[in-house]
Design brief:
It contains 6 helices and no strands. With 113 residues, it is an all-alpha fold. The longest helix is centred in the N-terminal third of the chain and has 18 residues. This is Alkylhydroperoxidase AhpD family core domain-containing protein.
């Protein structure tokens, strides 16, 4: 199984278990997250770029992978993704660089699938 399939399958499996617990607060939070990334005054592509940059600055590899997958789905070009990477690195500083390396590796996987 490739890293993209592995990530997506694990995420789906665990989200299913989390939702099965039927916790109102968790369900509302997940719903809020889903609705925040829906098209509105900002288009989905812009929102995913913001999500990717924030995830990199916050150093969440799972979030970075998720947003990279969404960026790929909405047709972002590598040059656009690297501009997001540059902004995130500028804002987050050198501590973002290890996450940048993994993000580049994951983007390459997405592009080569």
């Amino acid at each position: 199984m490739n890293p993209i399939e592995e990530f997506n399958e694990y995420r789906a499996k665990m989200n299913e278990k989390i939702m099965a617990a039927d916790n109102k607060v968790i369900k509302r939070f997940f719903n809020l997250d889903t609705n925040a990334y829906a098209s509105g005054e900002l288009d989905v592509k812009s929102k995913e770029m913001i999500g990717l940059a924030c995830s990199m600055v916050l150093r969440c590899d799972d979030c970075i992978k998720y947003h990279l997958g969404k960026c790929h789905e909405v047709g972002m070009k590598s040059s656009e993704v690297f501009e997001v990477f540059s902004i995130a690195t500028l804002i987050g500083g050198s501590i973002v660089i290890p996450h940048l390396r993994r993000a580049v590796e994951y983007w390459e996987e997405l592009e080569n699938q």
